[in-house]
Structure formats: C-alpha cells, structure tokens
Amino acid sequence: MKKYIKQISILKYLIIIIRTLNIKPSFYKRITNLGSYFNDLRNFRRSESNNNFIIETGDLYPRIFDKTNETKLDPIYYIQGCWCAKKIFDNKPAHHYDIGSQVQMVGIISQFVPTTMIDIRPLSVDLESLSFIKGDITNLPFKNNSIKSLSSICVIEHIGLGRYGDRLDQFGTEKSAKELSRVLEKNGNLYISAPVDSENRIYFNAHRAMTRHYILELFKELNLVEEKYIYGNKIYHKYEIDKGFGTGLFHFRK
Asked: Are strands 234-236 and 96-99 parallel, antiparallel or unpaired?
C-alpha cells in the first residue's frame, strides 16, 4: 500500500514537471503561424510598392502569435488596474505610494499623481513623477501612520513563496498585511487585491488564495470602504463563494 501511494506521489511530481516544461503554443501551431507569416510576406511584396520605405530580408521581424480574434489581455490585471487607478484619481492625493504592483499601472498613475514605488527589484527605467525605493513589504522603510495613499495590487498573496526572489516565509502574507496597516496614516486609503477562494490555499510557488473572511481578518485594524470581485472576465459587487477562485478588490481606510 505504501509503495502504491509513493508511486502516486511520483506521478504527481512528474505531471508537474511535464506541465512546467510544456512549450505553448504547440509545435504544430508554430509551424502553421510561420507558414501564414511567409504567405503574408509574399503577398505584401507582390502588392503595389510604397517607395517611402525599404523592405529587406535582414529586417524581417516575425510576430506570429499576434494575429488573434480578440485583443490579448489578462482580464484580472486589466480590471484591477483600472479599479485602483480610478480610486486614486478620484481621491487626488498629494502623493501616492505603491508596494510591488504591476509597473505599467504604477507608471500611468504617476503621470497624474506623484508616486513612489517600493519593491525588492529596482526599476530599470526613469520616469518623471515616479520615484523608487528598494524595500521589503514585510519590513517597510516607513514610520507608523505615515502614508496617506497606498496601494499593493496582487502582491500579498505572493510574499514568502520565492517566486520573485523574496525569502521563503510561511507567514509572508500575514506580515505584509500587518506592515501595510502599520504605515497607513489615520484616515489614509489602502487599495489591495488578492486571489479569493472557498478556502485558504497555497499554489506553490505562484500564489496563495484566501477567503473573504480571512482577508478582512488580516486587515481588521482598518475599515472596509469598498469590495469588488473578479470572476472570469467580469467584476461583481459581492463575494460569491460558489464561484470558487477569483480576485478580490478591497479599499480600506484607517
């Protein structure tokens, strides 16, 4: 019996390895798209020439996976980024701070509100109105009650799982929530998002998922202003446990 169970465990690890090493899209899809590319190139060259441009073989630059029926995007990051940006724009803080969120969202926000971004990985570009501080969300370099406007979008669920080079820590999410609450100023606004599910789970080393109850418990020192939920590619106004895995958007105030 033990031998049988052990074999199942090995098979589970084997499946994980195969899934990880599986290259998408498939080889057939790559060949098909490449054939379509050369067909387009041939037809393009046969069409009326635009003498304002030169086209040489050495300049060919195939982009064979962009010809899709829909605009490619991650609905979660798209929706939560719009939600967070609107919150900040509506509140018009004199300065905004972000901890580890998607850099595209933070960069856009910084063009409307002077913004400081904090992350363990430095930014490789300079952008007007956006400053950077290297820091760890589990030990933020700020005094108690010192930040008026703060965001951390889809961050706390990753902390301690090593995915982004951070230290392994079973309690990374809890420490992150405690630090965000600590540095938030009285009457200050905090915007966060995190995966939600019917129970607390770890999908090592991608992320954690939590119940609504647990997230509210993590930020029990703060007052909940608004909550929304993303299931699939739609946003909902309430937590629906029967829908299973989703993403919760939370606006807290101290």
From this structure: unpaired
Q: Which of helix, strand or coil describes residue 34?
A: helix
* Cβ-based neighbour number of residue 101 at 10 Å: 24
CB of 140 within 8 A of CB of 190? no
CA angle 90, 236, 85 (to 5 degrees): 25
Q: What's this model's pTM, rounded to 2 decimal places?
A: 0.90
Q: What is the 3-state secondary structure (H, E, C) of 205-219?
A: CCEEEECHHHHHHHC
> 163-180 burial, b if ≥16 CB within 10 A, otherwise e?
eeebeeeeebbbbbbebb
Please give the class, per CATH, of domain 75-253: alpha beta
Q: Could you report the average pLDDT of every consecutive run of 10 residues in the chain (254 residues)? A: 56 74 82 94 95 94 92 94 98 98 97 97 92 97 98 98 95 98 98 97 96 98 98 95 95 98
Burial of 46 (0-12, 13-18, 19+ CB in 10 A): exposed
